[in-house]
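Q: Can I see a sequence and its folded structure?
A: Here is a first one.
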Amino acid sequence: MRRARTAAPLTALTLALLLPQAAHATPPTGVSSVIVAKTTHAGRDYVVREITIGPGGGTGWHFHRGTLYARVRVGTLTHTAADCVTIRTYHAGDSLVEPSGPQHVHMGENRGPGPLVLDVLYVNPAGSALSEDAPAPPCAA
C-alpha cells in the first residue's frame, strides 16, 4: 500500500517535467483603467474606458472578442502585432482600430518618459471580457 501512495506523485512529477508545457500569458504591467460608461444593446456591450499606461508599462499580449476603437489622448503608444514585425507608433491625437479574434494577438507599450492615456470604445459580444490574455508569440521570445 505504501508503494502506491508514493508512485502517484512521482508519476505526476515525471509527466510534468517530460511533457511540453503550455505557453503562459503575458500579464500587463503599469496599467490602470476606469470604465467611463457601459451599455448593452442588441447583443453587444459598448464600453468606454480610460486606460493609463505608465512609462515602461505594457498591456501584455492579448486579443479582443469584439472591435476596439481607441484614441491616444496623451503620450505615445507602441503597438506590436503577433508577427513581431508590424509595429506601429501612435501619438497624441491619433486613433486606431483593433479587429476582433484570436488571430489578431497584439500588445501595446508605453516606451516614453511620461504616462500614456488612451480613450477606448469596446464593441463586444454581450458578456465577453474586454480582452483575453494570450501567450507571447514565438518571435517575441
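Q: Show me another, different protein.
A: A second, unrelated one:
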Amino acid sequence: MTDQDGLFNVSTEQPPAAPTERKISDQQVQLLRDAFAAAGIDGMDDRKAIVESVTIRSVATIRDLHAKDVRPILRRIEERRNYAAPVTGSAWDTREEDTWIDRL
C-alpha cells in the first residue's frame, strides 16, 4: 500500500446520476381517464385524492405522474369500483322473503 491509497481504495469520482423517471405517456393518461370514468369518479378532488394516496406525493396534474405510477393507480381505482358498502341493519331488515307477519 502506498501513501496515496485511501482507507478503502474508494474512487473519488462522482457516482453516475440516477436515471430520471419516465414520464406518463398519452396512452397511459387515457387509460387513467377511462378508468376514472368507468368507476364513476368524476370529481377532480376525488381523483387527486386517489392518485396522491398511491403515489404518496403531491400531484398537481396528471402529467406530473411517472409511468410506473399508472398500474398501482389503476388497481386502486378498480378496488374502489368493486367496493361493496357494508350491509347495515338487522337480519330482519335485510330479509329477502316475506314472513307471516308481512302478510298480515
